[in-house]
Amino acid sequence: MSYTGWILLTASLVGLSCGLIGVLLILRRMAMMADVISHTVLLGIVFAYLVTRELTGIHMLIGAVVTGLITALLSNGFIHEVYSKRLRLALSLQLYLR
Hints:
flat
């Protein structure tokens, strides 16, 4: 496959997956969760680069997925239990602390 083909395939897959997740978050009234997850995914990519010192490879994806899942699980589990009526406040604090 050519380089342009890979770019189009990647853009299509990213657009499809982000659209599905975005609709789910909006319908559940958790739009700020998307901001929190996107910030921590970037942090996971940076950590993967710092560990391996390479910009290519599957480790960048693994770092992003792991940090995104950890953030989603902690946000929905621990923070929701502690701040059940103030979930938006808790997510705002997470964004501020990052």
